[in-house]
Amino acid sequence: MVKQLPQRSQVDQEETWNLDDLFPSKEAYQNALETLQTEVSEFEQKFQGKIETADDIVAVLKDYEAIYLQLIPLGTYTSLAVSVDQTNDEAQMLDSHFGSVSAKVGSQLSFVTSELLERPEVVLQEAMEKSDEYSHYLKELIREKQYRLHPEAEKALAAYSSAFDAPYGLYNTTKMVDMDFPDFIVDGNAFPLSYVSFEGGWEAEPDTKKRRAAFEAFSSKLRDYQHTTAKTYDSHLQLEKITADLRGYDSVIDYLLFDQEVDQSMYHRQIDLITKELAPHMRKYAKLLQDVHGLDRMTFADLKIPLDASYEPKITVEESKKYINDALSIMGPDYLDMVKRSYDERWTDFAQNKGKSTGAFCSSPYGTHPYILISWTGSMEDVFVLAHELGHAGHFYNAHKHQNAFNSRPSTYFVEAPSTMNEMLVANHLLSNSEDLKFKRWVISSIISRTYYHNFVTHLLEAAYQRKVYEKIDAGGSVNASVLNELKRGVLEEFWGESVEINEGAELTWMRQPHYYMGLYPYTYSAGLTISTEVAKRVLNEGQPAVDDWIKVLQAGGTKTPAELSKMAGVDITTDEPLRNTIAYIGDLIDQLVQLTEEINAEAEVQTSK
Fold this sequence. Notes:
Layout lengths: L25 H22 L6 H30 L5 H30 L2 H10 L1 H13 L6 H9 L1 H4 L1 H13 L5 E3 L2 E3 L3 H6 L7 H17 L1 H22 L4 H7 L5 H14 L1 H15 L23 H12 L4 H12 L3 E2 L11 E3 L7 E3 L6 H23 L9 H4 L1 H15 L5 H38 L6 H16 L25 H21 L1 H13 L5 H7 L8 H33 L1
Parallel strand pairs: 3-5
Antiparallel strand pairs: 1-2, 4-5
Helix pairs in contact: 1-2, 1-3, 2-3, 2-4, 3-6, 4-5, 8-11, 11-12, 13-20, 14-25, 15-16, 15-19, 17-19, 17-23, 19-20, 19-22, 20-21, 20-22, 20-25, 22-23, 22-25
């Protein structure tokens, strides 16, 4: 049974991450923040209005990077502190104060980009030749030039940055602080409910009465906040629309795709092809779940149940080490050393507590080690989630060692490839170590229900919904709860058809996803998994040469486009072949699940008849 979550102060310190690696005390943080503000003012006096020659450009970028390196741990420290306890007033105020300081700093520093872009391109090219270290940064700057505004306008926009971030902060406060879920009742018994307990437990509860009751109670509380959350989201969307128009983009979608370094054809292909060609396979999977569990009907509230709940092993954090190490050993000793350090040095926050952000993420501040947030429930799914986040950690661990702070982050189109790659390695390792029918079915069902469902279905349907939202915004419209509910329900019904009943409450799923405040992020999960599926096949077939190529890709960071990075790994994402291959692979896995279920049932009948 799901228990009430403890307060943050009640959890075991060993289950939490160690923020002392960023700053050993609040005083050290405050001192660093004051030092930053002083040095930014000195930097402004030293360089503003004085960037003329190629040598000046190299000099200003060197000092600019030094300030950027001071800014990163400060922002990481406050955001991580509030992410583990949204109810902590001190953490909230600290994070809010940093946002204000950061906005002021950004405004003071905005002259750098503006003055660089005022230089003749021949001078920028000369600076690129003088400094390999900053050539990529300057190249990207030149690409951005057509969308830059007057220097004073850029300074004003930078000053408002914390205000532009306000909708996301309000969303999280509404979700993690204001929403207080009451217990739900089944057969006269009360069961506790929270965001974390629903998404980490009740959503996949094998007991149908409890699962559906939890879904109804969860949806009821979401409904109470739908109008506030919709208004918050619309505020965010309108800010994006204004910014896109001011900068001269043809649409919000073009504006959001610019930094991803992909065009609309790659964006639309990912959504359209999966919606059309994956849907039949997933409908077959839904039917299998219904048959195995003997459900009277298959509803949206039933889609996360495990195929065989009785076979789901419970895993402790300590036990996860062997699974992770064995699966990722092919990545080499340096990678495994990173994994070991993540456990030994408390890079990961495993605790479940009130006010903690839902889901999981990896924050990888340049100059220190990555930090991973996860709420450990003890299911095998947690091992896949942890492997996923360690994929992000391993990516930036490698990129930071080989690239400077400006060059280390790749396009978000590619960023989910290293994380989903690790999930594939875990799955392949588990499959290669047993011929037991039930174990094989459990592993494959885990790949479908965790890796592919999460990345190719959940996030894909978010992307399809998000595209419809932006189409309205680009047409000059706005959204409210009724519009968002209608759009979300329509996307779900189109994908699942008659195979799944989209019951009341399913339309509110849009309220659960923070990715909508991060640009066109949802579709990139399927893009990344498409790349990693193909690379994982290479690793299985070719071994070390494929791994060596992949490590070089991780080390390249953001110095290449998604298409170039993928090509380095042996995958051509400029065509639809990798995506069609991945959809076919998912279909084959689901066919294997059907076949294994039939074999397991036949064996059971033989045993019963004896």
